[in-house]
Amino acid sequence: MILHGIKLIEDYRKHPDKYLPLYYPTGQTPERNEYDEVNIGWWAGLLDEKRPFFAECWAVDGITMLTIAVSTEGIEDITVEDLDKMFQDAEYYKQREPGQNLPHVDTFISKEGHKLYSINLTVGVEDEPARIDGGWIDPWAILNEYNLYTSE
Q: Measured between alpha carbons, how far is 69 from 55 in angstroms, rounded to an integer?
């Protein structure tokens, strides 16, 4: 069984040693944040059996973005192109025009001290056609409710 969404987060919380580090919000995510960004949805998935990722879909000023967090462990020197290809090979999303919409990639350190990639990918701009296919998301209400009734 391939775990994803809330089931993956539940399994990660129960068995963190089974996986590489995973960043995900543990509090309540509002519909809009202080920067007037609209929080559309989220997804948790696996690139392989040990490498989870967490994606957030959001929009601001007519641009819809997907921000994905994934551990850098073991892929510290990966190129942006190969990182993009990993997500496409895992069938999380597919670029409509390969090579034309590469993500912007940075790194950050989680509160637990893990180094992660922050992958920012443009999903769409105003009335233009979507730039990717896929990129599944669930409503924030699912994770917000789960976080409300569980604690780490």
A: 6
CA-nearest of 47, 56, 52 to 25 is 56
| Model pTM score | 0.94
Tell me which residue of 109, 115, 119, 44 sits closest to 76, measured CA to CA.
115
Q: What is the pLDDT of residues 65-77, one digit of tens each?
A: 999 999 999 999 9
Residues in the chain: 152
Query: Cβ distance 97 to 84 under 8 Å?
Result: no
Distance CA 75, CA 25 (A): 23
Domain extents for the chain? Answer: 5-149
Q: Name the β-bridge partners of 6.
A: none
